[in-house]
Structures are given as C-alpha cells and as structure tokens.
Write a structure and sequence with these properties.
Family: Belongs to the small leucine-rich proteoglycan (SLRP) family. SLRP class IV subfamily.
Distance between the termini: 45 Å
Number of helices: 7
InterPro entries: Cys-rich_flank_reg_C, Leu-rich_rpt, Leu-rich_rpt_typical-subtyp, LRR_dom_sf, LRR_TM_domain-containing, LRRNT
Structural class: mainly beta
Radius of gyration: 29 Å
Shape: globular
Helix content: under 10%
Strand content: 15-25%
Largest sheet: 14 strands, mixed
Protein name: Chondroadherin-like protein
Subcellular location: Secreted, Extracellular space, Extracellular matrix
Number of strands: 45
Main location: secreted
C-alpha cells in the first residue's frame, strides 16, 4: 500500500500544472522561475518539489507561511529578488530545507522569528544585503546550520551571544562589513566553529577577548582591517593553525603576540607596513611567515628576526625595500653580515650627565591620556579634546588622537616627538592642517587623517616630516587633488583619497610624488584624467578608480606606468572599450577589474598586449553579449563572468570551448536565445548545431569535467591574488 500511495503521489506530481513563467522538471522535482516578473510566491508549485529556484524576481516581502504548500523543499534560492523584509514565520513548515540562499537582496533586519521552522537547515547565505542589526535569538532555531554567510552587509557591532543556538556551525563568514566593535561574548556559543572570516572590516585592534572563546577554530581571516599593532599574548586560540592578517595597517608585532596559540603554523602578514619583526619566540610551532609587500628594512635591526627564522626552521617570504644595496633581495637569500647599520651607536660616555631626568621625562603623560612605556604608545582617543595635548614621552612611537574635536592642527603641534612613527588623527573635525603642523616629526612614516573636513593642503603642512610614506585622506572634502602638496614628501608610497568629491586629475596634481606606489581614488566623481596627471608617479603599482564617473578607459594617462600591476575601473559608466586600451600597461598588468560598469561592447582587440601575465580578470555584472578572444590568458587564476547576458549562438562557440578548458568556475550564463536563458554557457545545447561542433572539444560528454593536463597545480591555485577566493566561494 505504501508503494502504491507513493506511485500515486508521484503521478499526481507529474500531472500537476506548472505556474507561469516557471519551468518544472517533475522527474527530479525541480522548479525554476528565473528572472521573471513574479511579485508573490506562486501557490501552484507542485507539492513534492524539492529544489525551487526563484532568482531574479520581485517579492519585496516574504510573508508568513509563504512555503506551506511545498513542505518537501530541500533547496530554496531567492537571490536578487529585491526582498526587504522576512516576516516572522516566513519559512515555517520547511523542516526538510538544507540550503537557503537570500543573497543580493535588501534585508536590513533579522527578527527573532524570521528563520523559525528551519530545523534541518545546513547552509544559510545572506551575503550582499543591508543587515545592520541581528536581534538576539534570530538563529536560535537553526540547530543544524554548518555555514552562515553574512558577507557584504552593514554590520557595525556584534553583541554578546548573538549566534546562540548554532551548536554545529563550522564556518562563519562576516567579511566586507563595517564591524569595529565585538562583544566579549559575541562568539561564546559556537563550540564547533572551525573557520571565522572577519576580513574587510573596520577592526582597529585584534579582538582578542572575543576570539578567546573559539577553542576549536583552526583558521582566522583578519586581513584588510586597519589593525596597526598586535600586542603581547593578543591571541589565545588553542587550535588555531592559519592566521591571515594581510593587507592591514600593521606597523609592529610583539614578540609574544601568538604565545597563547601554540598550534599556529601559517602566519600571513603580506601587504602591511612592517619594516621588520622581532623574533616570534612565543609561536613555537610556526612553519611559515608571509611578508611580501612590506617595506622591510634589512639592516642590523632585522638580524635577530632573521637569525630566529634559521634557528626555528621557519620559512619566510618577502623582499628588502631598503637599504638601496639590498632592495629587492629575497629575505631568505640574505646572510647576517650583509644586514648592517650604517651609523652604529656610539659607546656610552662616562662623563655624560645623569640619565635620570631624561628617564623621568619619558614617563610623563598628558592628563586624561594613556601612555605605555612598554610599547611606546600614547592614546587620547575619544576624550572630547578640543586642543592637541602635549608633554607626551619623548620616545613615543605611536600616538592615537582619534575622535576628538581639534578643528585645526596648528604649527609645531607635536613638540619633542622626534621618534614618532605613526600618528592617528581620524574623526577629529579637522578643517586645516596649518604650515609647520608636523614640524619636528622627522621619523613620521604613517599619518591617518580619515573622516575629517579637509578641502585643501599646502606643501608647507608637511614641512619637517620627510619620511612620511603612508598618507590616508579618505572621506574628507577634497574636490580636487591638492596640487603640489606632496613636493616635500619624496618617500610617499601610499596615498588614500577615497570617498571625497574629486572631479578630475590634472597635470601637476601629483608633482613630487615620485616614489608613489599605491594610489586609491575609489568613490570620487572623477570624469577626466589628464594625459600627464599620473606622470610623476612612474613607480605606481596599484591604481584604484572604482566608483567614479569615467566614460572611457584613461589610456593616455596610463602611459609611462611600467610597474602598474593592478587597475580597478569597476563601477564607472564605461559602455564601450576600443582597441588597445590597456597597451600602455600590458607588460606589467596582473589584476584588472572591469565589473559593474554597464559595459555593452568590448572591441575584438581591446585586450591587445595582455596575456599570460594576467592573473585575475573581473567582468561580472555587465551587458555585453560576447567578449574578445582570450586564449592567450594562460596565467588566469580568477575569471568572473557572472551576470553577463551572453548570446549563446555559434559566434560564442570559441568562448565556450575556451571556458570548457579552464579549470576555473567562471559563472558564465546565457542571456539568450530564450531556450538557453539562465543556463551555464558550458551546458547550453544551442552550440550543438554549430559547424565544427565536436572537433577538438574537451569533455563534451560531461562539460563540467576537464582533462588532467588542463588542471593547474594546487600551488598555483592556492590564492596569491589580492582578490583570492572567487573561484572557491562565489562561482
């Protein structure tokens, strides 16, 4: 009787009507309603449906009980559906659901009962929403969840016990938010967590107290956070094996920073501001340290670290930035006698006056501030100060004055701080940096002026700070690059001018910035770049122009930039790319971002000159229906072609063949003809009528497979690109 009832049920499902404009595969119990005009969840979906794909519709609200008619669902995809709110009980009745994808919607708040009824759910994808707040108990009913993806939302704060109930969660993804405060018990209820991704946030210090609750976590991603220092015993994670602190703002790491993480094997410190490191004696199990992209000073001061690497048999990559004789030399090729100091310290003078008054002076500290003699740091952050305090210890190296209301920085504002290396003046209401403001800061390397009201700068403001290398002016009020302001900064390496109101780059704007390597101009209003605007910065390696108003690739301005390896043009209204637009940088370019531009046409020779050196290419979310021949892009590690409406006819066959040979997930789908819409380019059958079909095809019987010969080694795919991970997580 049971078999007869099941047969009757299946027969009924086969005969059940399929709601327009959906496609129903009753044999596999799959229903696809892609990119349609649905404004409500259809109530005529076959009851026995297991997989329901509703991507690209317009639901706005998922009401309570929306899926009560489909209790057998195991997979539900609601990406790009303009969902703003999940009503309490929206998924009630879906006790069998194991996968729920709500990415790329507009959800701002998770209520306590929004996810009620999902007792079997294993993967929840909430990437790319606007979630600002998670109410306590929102995940309390998800006892089977193993992966929670909250990337690219608007989270600022994680309260205590916010993830309570997730007893078997193994991977928590919080990348690309604006987190800067974590409750000390935020991760207390995650006993099974093995991987935590906190990269691309606003954490200014390593959240050691919150992380100490994660006894079982083996991988921690903290890259792309403005963390400047890792203190003694800052990280107590008993099982941690892989720690990523790349692309942060690190200037120093304490010798015992990782002493309480005894299982640590791999430490990634790439692309920071480290001139050196002490021997990391506390990290007894360490096997590898990555230091590429740091301005390493290979003098006698680095010798203790170098000797420790040899004794502890720790592999380290990275290259010297100075002194000139060693510039470019790999760290592991150096011999101790080569690491010299040009000016040895003179022996102590027995006739010198007593050091006691000097020592006493070094312990002074302005009232209301905190001064650490161990770390040589001073902090008066968020003290509601209206004037810059004085009388800091003369040996202070890092001074944190964030979140005060100074208004202006007057001349000689920091007397007696000749050893100061890093100065933090973010969010201080500063409207003017007066001439001579930094006078006497002869060792200053890092200056942070983010989130102020600066609209102009004179070169004289930087008088007396010739070593300044990192200048952060993001989120100020500049309407143009302060021309000539960098004349007194011959050592400037990194310049941040993101999220201002700059309308153009003119000739002379970067005069004097001859050592500039990284220029960040994301989120301005740049419409034009003069041909000679970037000429002074001949050593430029990274140019980020994302989110501006450019209508064409600034080819003329790229001439002479023979070292440029990364170019970001994402989110500019460039509709067409002509021939040879990247020729000036073709010999050096490795990472090219052309996504989200509304790009409609790419000339067949637009990529002329580019080839094996290109490692990552981003073309997602554009409007072209074909792309040029890229068969010579043999070094690709990442290729993103998602959300491009390819016309899958015979003209696209060469691209289809090329994609089929790649061992990458590229996300390419057909936008037309109608019978192929929504299908992967690899899987579309529209090519089978093309002349020459079947000749030289790889894996025609199963397009998802590639030959062993076409697979790059794991080492090559392991992710050296700065945009690591698309082909692993977003394909």
């Amino acid at each position: 009787w049971g078999l007869l009832l099941l047969a009757a049920a299946l027969g009924g499902a086969a005969a059940a009507p399929c709601p327009a404009p959906c496609v129903c595969d009753n044999l596999r119990a799959h229903v696809l309603c892609l990119n349609g005009s649905l404004v409500a969840i259809p109530d005529t979906i076959p009851e026995l449906t297991k997989k329901l794909d509703l991507r690209g519709n317009s639901f706005s609200v998922i009401p309570a009980g929306a899926f009560l008619a489909t209790p057998y669902l195991t997979h539900l995809d609601l990406q790009h559906c303009k969902v703003e709110r999940l009503e309490e009980g929206a998924f009630r009745g879906l006790g069998r659901l194991v996968y729920l994808n709500l990415a790329s919607n507009s959800i701002a708040l998770l209520y306590q009962e929004s996810l009620d009824g999902l007792s079997s759910l294993q993967q929840l994808i909430l990437e790319g929403n606007r979630i600002e707040e998670i109410q306590p108990g929102a995940f309390g009913h998800l006892g089977s969840l193993t992966v929670l993806d909250l990337r690219a939302n608007a989270l600022v704060y994680l309260p205590d016990m916010v993830f309570q109930g997730l007893q078997v969660l193994r991977w928590l993804r919080l990348s690309h938010n604006t987190l800067h405060v974590l409750g000390s018990e935020a991760f207390a209820a995650l006993p099974a967590l093995r991987r935590l991704s906190l990269d691309h946030n606003e954490l200014q210090a390593l959240p050691g107290e919150a992380l100490a609750r994660l006894d079982g976590a083996t991988r921690l991603d903290l890259g792309h956070n403005p963390i400047t220092y890792v203190a003694e015993e800052a990280l107590a994670m008993a099982s941690l094996r892989h720690l990523f602190l790349d692309h942060a703002s690190l200037q120093d790491v304490a010798p015992d920073a990782f002493a309480l993480s005894p299982q640590l094997r791999v430490l990634d410190l790439r692309e920071n501001q480290l001139q050196g490191l002490p021997p990391l004696a506390g990290a007894g199990g360490l096997a590898r340290v990555s230091l590429h992209g740091n301005p390493l000073l290979c003098s006698c001061l680095l010798r203790p670290f170098h000797n420790w690497l040899a004794r502890a048999r720790v592999q380290a990559d990275g290259a010297c930035a100075a002194p000139p004789a060693l510039r470019g030399r790999p760290l592991d090729s150096l011999k101790p006698p080569e690491m010299r100091c040009s000016r040895p310290r003179p022996p102590p003078n027995p006739t010198a006056p007593s050091e006691q008054p000097r020592a006493a002076a070094s312990r002074r500290c302005p009232r209301g501030c905190v001064c650490s003699s161990d770390f040589r740091h001073g902090s008066c952050a968020n003290r509601d100060l209206q004037e810059i305090p004085r009388e800091f210890p003369g040996d202070t190296r890092l001074l944190d004055l964030r979140q005060n209301t100074f208004g202006t920085v007057p001349p000689d504002a920091f007397p007696g701080l000749k050893e100061l290396v890093s100065l933090h003046l973010q969010s201080c209401g500063i409207r003017a940096l007066e001439p001579g403001a930094l006078r006497g800061l002869e060792s200053l390397v890092y200056l942070y002026l983010t989130d102020n009201h600066l609209s102009t700068l004179a070169a004289a403001a930087f008088e007396g700070a010739p070593q300044l290398a990192y200048l952060d002016l993001d989120r100020n009020a500049f309407t143009r690059v302060p021309a000539g302001a960098f004349q007194l900064l011959p050592n400037l390496i990194s310049l941040h001018l993101q999220h201002n109101a700059i309308g153009e780059l003119a000739e002379g704007d970067l005069a004097g910035a001859r050592g500039l390597r990284w220029l960040y101009l994301t989120g301005n209003a740049i419409r034009h770049i003069a041909p000679a605007a970037l000429a002074p910065a001949k050593m430029l390696e990274k140019l980020q122009l994302e989110g501006n108003h450019l209508v064409e690739v600034p080819t003329a301005a790229l001439r002479g930039l023979s070292a440029l390896s990364e170019l970001k043009l994402s989110r500019n209204p460039i509709k067409r790319m002509g021939d040879g637009v990247f020729l000036p940088v073709a010999s050096s370019l490795q990472h090219l971002y052309l996504d989200n531009m509304g790009l409609e046409e790419i000339s067949p020779r637009a990529f002329a000159g580019l080839g094996p050196k290109i490692r990552s290419l981003y073309l997602e979310s554009n409007k072209m229906s074909n792309i040029p021949n890229m068969s010579n892009f043999t070094g690709l590690e990442i290729l993103n072609l998602q959300d491009v409406p390819f016309h899958c006819d015979c003209q696209l066959l060469p691209l289809r063949r090329w994609i089929n040979k790649l061992n990458l997930r590229v996300g390419a789908t057909c936008g037309s003809p109608p019978e192929a819409r929504g299908l992967k380019v690899k899987l579309s059958t529209t090519f089978q009528t093309c002349p020459g079909w079947g000749r030289g095809e790889v894996g025609e019987a199963n397009p998802e497979k590639t030959t062993a010969a076409s697979k790059p080694s794991k080492k090559k795919r392991s992710g050296k690109s700065p945009a690591r991970g698309f082909n692993k997580s977003r394909a």
